[in-house]
Amino acid sequence: MNDLIAALTVARKDFRQELRSRATTVATLFFSAITLVMMAFGLGRDPELMRSAAPGVLWVALAFAGVIAAAQSFQADLEEGAFEQLLLLPVSRAAVYLGKLAASWLYLFVLGALMLPIALGLYGADAPASTWWLLGLVLLLGTLGLALIATFYAGLTANLQAREALLPVLMFPVIVPIMLGAVRATEAALMGSADAPLALSWVQLLGGFDLVYLVVCASIFHFVVDD
Amino acid sequence: MSDTSGRTRRPRWLTVFGLVTLAVVGVGLYAALIVSPPDVNQGDLIRVMYAHVPVAWIGFAAVAASAFWGMLYLWRGRAPDDVRAQATAEAALLFSVLTVIGGMTYSKPTLNTYWTWDAKLTLTALMVALVVGYFIVRALIEDPQRRARVSAVIMLVVLVSLPFNYLAAEWFRTLHPAKSINLDGSGVTMAPVMVRVLLINVLGGAMVFFYFISERIRIGRLALADDKTFDSVRGVAREVVSVR
Amino acid sequence: MSGGQDGLAIELRGVTRRMGGEYVLRGIDLEVAPGKLVVLRGSNGTGKTTLLRLLATRLRPAGGQALVFGHDLTREAAAARARLGLLTVMGGSFPLLTGRENLELATALTPRRPGLPARAEAGQAEPTEAWKARTPLATLGRVGLEHGADKLVRTYSSGMKKRLGLARLLLLDPDLWLLDEPYAALDDLGKRLMDECVTAAQARGRTVFMASHESDRDHLGPDAVIELKDGTLRMFGA
Predict the structure, then answer these.
(1) Which helix (DSSP H) or strand (DSSP E) does residue B98 occupy?
(2) Which chains neighbour B (Cβ–Cβ under 8 Å, 3 or more pairs)?
(3) Fewer CB atoms inside 10 A, N or C side of chain C?
(4) How many helices (H) and strands (E) does chain C have?
């Protein structure tokens, strides 16, 4: 119970920091949007190809944003030795991990909710009104998966050299199942309610991934942050 | 750290084991190239399989072994456990790279392309990327104890990621997930003689793996005992500073 | 409690620690009884900060045994952490939070220690108002930061950041104060404030372990001045 309150306190602190470092937050947002645009140029002019690529492009953009957001959240903490001070308080490392996770999850989810309509608009795909709840569920579980791994590895690489390049190298091979599950579920959800069972079967993969890594990462995070 | 002079020479059992390994690999090679008949469908190409399959299996076993030693390190904090974890991780990298190369060699003549997103090969390629990440992090941390802890954690995550990545690789080219799980090797049936030849080669591969890590662990432990930085701590004249 | 001598605030036995591959601490043996004020000297790069971070449970010893109030710093780090506080050179506050938010974060994450007010009031010359009103805002006033309470720490000067770090220590008031170059970056008024707080903490029975290369703080009357050199400790001047 104490851990839960501590995690919420850390999450509120992180989210407050995110809101205050407005330049970084807005830059990440535009970074995702510009990724969507650049990928459109990369894919060419075939409208059918673009339409079918929309879910994949969206999740690639979100994965990139996840890397930046997680690295940024540790960067802000490390600058003045404040993170060290936080770790000196009698608070469990799992609570610190869960708090930072909650903040980057919320951030990524909001980002995803903003990027989804932009991606659909740019790539000429449209979302049926009947499956918006399904899209929301996929966004929720998919961004949780990204945030779980990004937060864990951002903590691991926080005081290493070359962390900017290292974080995606470590993170991307682990989030392959999230990318696959989220893209396929998004695809199926865009097909309308007839394909809802198909989307839900991919959502199961996301849910299983999230559950396992939530337990694993929270329980071994102390090996990563304690020097 | 104990006296190293008696341990610098390779123990006799390891030399003997190495020679036996060489013999078993020779028998396996002979069996694969001469004894085994060509496959009905694939002809002589089946002979690649005798090396490819053992190498692939051992690669995955090596990741599991490295994660095991890593967890033991996290639990007991003894430096030799980290040496073992590193040795098995090196073997995992070597065998999984060989698996990817072998798979591509196998794929080119049969399917006329080097890369087909075959599930097991995709899984192995992801494993190569994960283990490369492990070694990049190892190279970046100078403090041996922190390096051991962090790399043990990474290998644990690699191990956990394998079943998920396996599902992802299996389902990558399918429309619907749960319907295409196939853990029994795609239902391939082999002639008994070919099974026997394969098993000899699995034994040979496992012995090569065991020889490799034994030698690597031996050298790693010698380096541990010969830690030059530790010399600066050995025999330091200490006095107890007491403020009471 | 594990194997330590009873009643020692700090007990180090043959403690070693590497930083970046090389040993910085090569064998530290130290005993400090509770309530003592110890000043740690040493030239730059001798490992004073390493020793303080090790005592604060942030760095694990590579070898040897380290205890704070009888708690092993590796195996019972959480129990040790509950009784110590560290003031780092930079002050250790979040730049994107205000001074007040930084202190509120610290108190929100620290469970109320039973019996603290009673102990705080017992036997001290200091007025007890500060302890009756041990709120973040009152504590900020005590270190002269009331005007900066709602400004982001990013806008603080380094001296103000140091004062904020001091405010956090006053607020949590741990049994062991670990101070890393507490006087660096402080103006004369700040230095005097630091002196007062250290003296008052010692009067309340706190143990203070301070790394400083300023010899002009000797008027604090430390119980011992010790020196870190070549990775080992000795009494200063001995």
Answers:
(1) helix B79-111
(2) A, C
(3) C
(4) 8, 10
pLDDT mean over B29-55: 88
Of B133, B150, B167, the CB nearest to A205: B167
Helix (H, G, I), strand (E, B) or coil at C32: strand
Nearest to C235 among B238, B241, B244 (CB): B241
Calculate the alpha carbon distances from C80 to A138, A187, B89, B203, C174 in Å: 43, 52, 36, 52, 10
The DSSP call for residue B34 is I
What chain C holds in terms of domains, given with CATH numbers, is 35-43+51-57+83-235 (3.40.50.300)
Q: Would you tell me the crossing angle of helices C99-108 and C158-172 to the nearest 10 degrees?
A: 30
Residues of B in contact with A220 (CB under 8 A): 74, 153, 156
Pull the structure tokens for residue A136: 């929301």
Do B168 and A177 count as a contact with CB atoms less than 8 A apart?
Answer: yes
What per-residue confidence (pLDDT) applies to C217?
67
Task: Report the 3 state secondary structure along A80-149.
Answer: CCHHHHHHHCCCCHHHHHHHHHHHHHHHHHHHHHHHHHHHHHHCCCCCCHHHHHHHHHHHHHHHHHHHHH
Q: Taking phi first (over 0 means left), then psi (-120 to 50 degrees means alpha), and beta for anything else, what does residue C181 get?
A: left
Checking DSSP bridges between strand C232-235 and strand C224-229, what pairing results, if any? antiparallel
Residue-by-residue pLDDT tens, chain C, 238 positions: 445 566 899 999 999 998 877 899 999 999 999 999 999 998 888 999 999 999 999 999 999 999 999 999 999 999 999 999 999 999 999 999 999 999 999 999 987 654 444 434 445 444 455 455 578 888 999 999 999 999 999 999 999 999 999 999 999 999 999 999 999 889 999 999 999 999 999 999 999 999 987 666 667 888 999 999 889 998 886 5
Entry field: residues in chain C: 238
Output phi, psi for A108, to 5 deg: -65, -35
DSSP-derived 3-state class of residue C232 = strand
Q: For residue B115, what are its two tokens?
A: 């890369």
| Element (DSSP H or E) covering residue C30 | strand C22-32
Q: Is B143 on the interface with C (CB under 8 A)?
A: yes
Beta bridge partners of C98: C152
In the sheet with C224-229, reading across from the earlier edge strand, the strands are: C84-87, C176-180, C207-211, C37-41, C224-229, C232-235
Interface of B with A in 46-75 (CB under 8 A): 74
B1: which residues sit within 8 A by CB, 6+ positions away? Answer: B224, B225, B227, B230
Model confidence at A129, pLDDT cuts 50, 70, 90, reads: confident
Strands C63-68 and C37-41: unpaired
Residue of A nearest to C172 (CA): A89
Cα–chain center distance at B51: 15
